[in-house]
Each structure stands twice: as C-alpha cells, then as structure tokens.
C-alpha cells in the first residue's frame, strides 16, 4: 500500500527555517571547541571542574559555551516536532517562528559566553520563547482538529 503526502505551498520555508537551526548548532559547536581548547579541558570531560574554573576564566567561559550548546540540544527535538506539525497547516507561521527561535538562540549564546549567565536572557531570547509558545499552541490546535475529525468520522 502506498500513500501520498501533499505538502502545502510555502512548506519550503519550513525546511529553510529548520536548516537555520543546524547552522546555529554548528556555530555553537565551533564555539565550544574553541573555548575547550583555550581552557585545556580534555575529552571526554564534559565540563570544566570547579578547580579548573577557579584557576582559569577560560574554563568558566568554556562551561558557559557548553551549557548554551547543551540547552539548545535539549530544546531541538521539541522545536522540530512543533515546527513540522505547525508547518503542515501554517507553513509561513511555522517558518517565521522557527527562524525567530534560531535568532533567539544566537542572542542567548552570545549573552551566555560573556561569562555572566544572566546575560543570556535578552529581548531577542524572549522572542524565541514566545515563538515556541506560538508553535505549541498552533500544533495543539492542528492535532486536536485531526483528532476531532477522526472521532467524529467514526462515532458521530
């Protein structure tokens, strides 16, 4: 049995916005590598130890870069799911929200690697949080509609 999936007009923008997240991750990966080298933190050590941080500001900056990257990785599966679900019905909205999220992660990372983690929360970062909430609301609306259609077709 074969199935056909028809993507809405504008879905290519969803793909482009998802690709932007890959560039964000690659940029964070480069930063982590650069700060790891400066700090002298050897693999497989994930973070600099407290003694290393007390001895070297570079070790502290490495931990900040590593944490910004980790946090992005922790959120990527949620973002991908919400973007794809939203993009099926509202591709332009999904693409714009995901692109805003990518920009927000750049701002988040730039703030974090100053060495003062409080600087990670900026107005641009908040834009990403609002985008995520919008994607969640849109995805919930779409999926609830699908569930209602399936329920009503079967039982009503």
From TrEMBL:
The chain crosses the membrane at residues 12-32, 124-148. InterPro entries: MAPEG, MAPEG-like_dom_sf, Membr-assoc_MAPEG. One of its GO terms (cellular component) is nuclear envelope. GO terms for molecular function: glutathione peroxidase activity; glutathione transferase activity. Gene3D superfamilies: Membrane associated eicosanoid/glutathione metabolism-like domain. Signal peptide: none annotated. It is found in: Membrane. The keyword Membrane applies. It is a multi-pass membrane protein. Keywords: Membrane, Transmembrane, Transmembrane helix. The keyword Transferase does not apply. This is Membrane-associated proteins in eicosanoid and glutathione metabolism. It comes from Hebeloma cylindrosporum.
